[in-house]
Amino acid sequence: MNILKWFKQREAWGGVVAAAIAFLGSWSVGYVSDGKAMDLLKGMLPSTRFMCASVMTATSTILALILTLISFTAQSDKHLKSRYFTRVKQIALLACTGFIAAIILLLIISLPIEEASEKLYPFFRFLYYFVLVYSALLGGLLVTIILKLYRAAAAVIVLIDPDADDTDLLVDEEPEDSGDGE
User: Fold this and answer.
1) What count of other Cβ atoms lies within 10 Å of the Cβ of residue 8?
2) Which of 148, 102, 145, 140 is closest to 18 using CA atoms?
3) What is the pTM assigned to this prediction?
4) Quick one: DSSP state of residue 113?
5) Where are the alpha helices (DSSP H) in the chain?
6) Per residue in 99-117, pLDDT tens?
7) Which residues have a Cβ under 8 Å from the Cβ of 83 and sit 6 or more positions away?
8) How many CA atoms lie within 13 A of 148 on its CB side?
9) How many CB atoms lie within 10 A of CB 153?
10) Residues forming a β-bridge with 170
11) Contact of 144 with 12, CB cutoff 8 Å
12) Would you list the domain boundaries of the chain?
């Protein structure tokens, strides 16, 4: 996926805005000393674990729903353009990425930091900022996935709604023969 082309899409900007809001929240905390970083890290670990579990649940559910979405569109009388299936493929890729990223973050924060010695305190400052940035990016990724999923669902509505006339998504029907013999 070309990164410049990806950022031209509206959904990507929704994720960027969500991540930026999270970055601003962490920036407002300011500089954190080594000892304070460990205390802050201990305080944020439960909510980070919950966020990782939520992202894993959401992305695995989205992947299952994508299979249903593909099955539904395959059985429809109307046919969608390949751009729609490219969008669904992007959603699946982003959902897999989000699932794997959440597992990695969950593994990182599962380290028993309470048992660490004081000589590791400088590492915890790095870990604190890393978890903040990683969590912000994970949240932004989930917002992007949800926005892309919304657009894909809106396209499927075109298949169901008899009054929907969205020629931008539907494959043009073959023109019928006018019968004048030419």
Assistant:
1) 9
2) 140
3) 0.74
4) G
5) 3-7, 10-29, 34-74, 82-109, 121-160
6) 999 999 999 888 777 776 6
7) 169
8) 30
9) 11
10) 80
11) yes
12) 41-160
